[in-house]
Specification:
The protein is α/β, with parallel strands linked by helices and about 650 residues long. It has a domain at about 540-655: ANL, C-terminal domain (GMP Synthetase, Chain A, domain 3, 2-Layer Sandwich). The protein has 19 helices and 31 strands. The strands form eight sheets. Strands 12-11-8-6-7-14-15-23 form an eight-stranded mixed beta sheet, sandwiched between helices. The protein has a seven-stranded mixed beta sheet with strand order 5-4-17-16-18-19-20, sandwiched between helices. Helix 4 runs parallel beside helix 11 (about 310-325) and helix 16 (about 530-540) packs across helix 17. The longest helix is centred in the N-terminal third of the chain and has 17 residues, at about 115-130. The chain is globular and about 70 Å long. Bound molecules: 5'-O-[(S)-butoxy(hydroxy)phosphoryl]adenosine.
Length: about 650
Amino acid sequence: MSESQETLSNLLREKRRFPPPAELAASANVTAAAYDEAAADRLGFWARQAERLSWTKPWDDVLDWSDPPFAKWYVGGELNVAYNCVDRHVEAGRGDKVAYHWEGEPGDTRTLTYADLQREVSKAANALLELGVRNGDRVAVYLPMIPELPISMLACARIGATHSVVFGGFSADALRTRLDDARAKVVITADGGYRRGKPSALKPTVDEAAAAAASVEHVLVVRRTGEDVAVHDRDVWWHDLVDRQSGEHAPEPHDAEHPLYILYTSGTTGKPKGILHTSGGYLTQTAYTHDAVFDLKRDEDVYWCSADIGWVTGHSYIVYGPLANGATSVMYEGTPDTPHQGRWWEIIAKYEVTLFYTAPTAIRTFMKWGDDIPAQYDLTSLRVLGSVGEPINPEAYVWYRHHIGGDRTPVVDTWWQTETGAVMISPLPGVTEGKPGAAMRPLPGIVADVVDDEGRSVPDGGGGFLVLREPWPSMLRTIWGDDERYVKTYWSRFDGMYFAGDGAKRDEDGDLWLLGRVDDVMLVSGHNISTTEVESALVSHPKVAEAAVVGATDPVTGQAIVAFVIPRGSAGADVEGEEFAAELRDHVARTLGPIAKPRQIMVVPELPKTRSGKIMRRLLRDVAENRSVGDVTTLADSTVMDLISAKLPSAKSED
Ligand code: WT7
């Protein structure tokens, strides 16, 4: 490969391997045979997976791909998503099985069985009908992590309204943009929720957004905190309207391609993209992957995904996948450090959680807080651990496996996106030998590849762009109201392939390593180096909890590597001086090679992150290049950049 064609370096060498536990392998839901079955007849494989669901009318064709990239899955089939997630479990005699063990941040709890859920969803569906919501209308949902959130989503699905859940941390302006784009008729919200030990208001944000959004006719308000709120003509209390409804509602069948939900993702520029997911294919793949990737044993496992339902992870793996499978889940309202830094581990011990799904950013935070915290809790119920959202650094993977999983549990690193709707690349816990940091293989039925600049597959050992070569059931169908942007954003970089925006490498064994967004790749002396690899090398130093790396313009090398580092709680006080920076630079040079040695290392107390936990490297690039810091409105904590800038005079640099 010539230098200009070189896509992404392949520097990291990770030799640790973790075979699946024998017992898990022996009883695994999915075995290695599934890969061959799916490869031999991909559509036949997906036809069999759709049989997990109850269809009121069978489909005629598995896939219509006659007008790419506009896919139709399970063509002609009809089903009701809420019926599949709730009623059919009750009809099968499992009405008393717990659907959600809900835990409020202040310590209050609610238990919802499938029978409870059927009644509550029916009431909410009847309430929406009374408000004039009809099949095809859009309903925005802006709620904290309380049971009314999944209940509202399922009520929409039940009557064929398309929900648009907006994360409770978004501003009035961001909410209004989303209400306008979807032309939402109703907003479901709450007075507030609990965060960090205090009530955190939501209603004032909705008041401001709804006043400016012409489409909104009603605001349905759940009382959660009991704090005073302003009441407008468009407002109606949940306890006034929903509580008096009948607990019965007959679900109607909808087309397999009926729009189930819109979920907005903020692109790097411009207005947010309304990612549209539909019914039959989405539910099939979320149910299948939840079963396969976590090896879900419906009647034994207690599953907990710590994400917020405001993100796709919560849609697919707190609501639709687990409920379609009739699983028992934990749902938690608050933050991991309230009232103490062991809260999550306390919850796992309390409910004897067996399957746990979280994000690398959380794992690295726990590493920073110290090993002694999880050590105080009995975590022996756990049997599979999952990771999602970012590349998991090998060191964070090993910490997770050891300190949370007691070295017994496989860790599944699951790669997917809001756009893919469900997991695409992941180990199978009973089949795959785990490699710290690698997402390994596309799941059975998924065709992914790593290609070079010209769309040619790279050989084993090569790096490049991650693409999907065949449509998949839970794929986005379009960007809401903007087919052209859908085609341009995802299907125009490489002919006939979906380009996900991520860089990846394929190692000598043919296994996949995700390297983050290609926009984050640095060009150092003609070499493309991924920020992820350098960050992982830094985190593998025993004194480093977290690291973020950016490329800054450099007169000599084109770009130079600048690293921002958070020390571990146990690292001691000697992390401020030049010696520590030199130690880290040498460590990276030893781990990855001299080409990857950072020019500059800054020790910082925090990193700028979006509300879903992704590092905002754009802001760090501003710091590294001595520019004034750009737009910080999507930061989870807008004061972080001040903390970092305050550290600047002491920044150490080497030429
Ligand atoms: C982007 C999608 C998928 C739900 C949460 C995020 C990154 C996600 C991994 C992983 C490396 C990952 C990618 C992807 N990402 N999972 N296991 N390894 N990177 O959804 O907000 O749509 O973000 O997250 O860059 O493109 P999202």
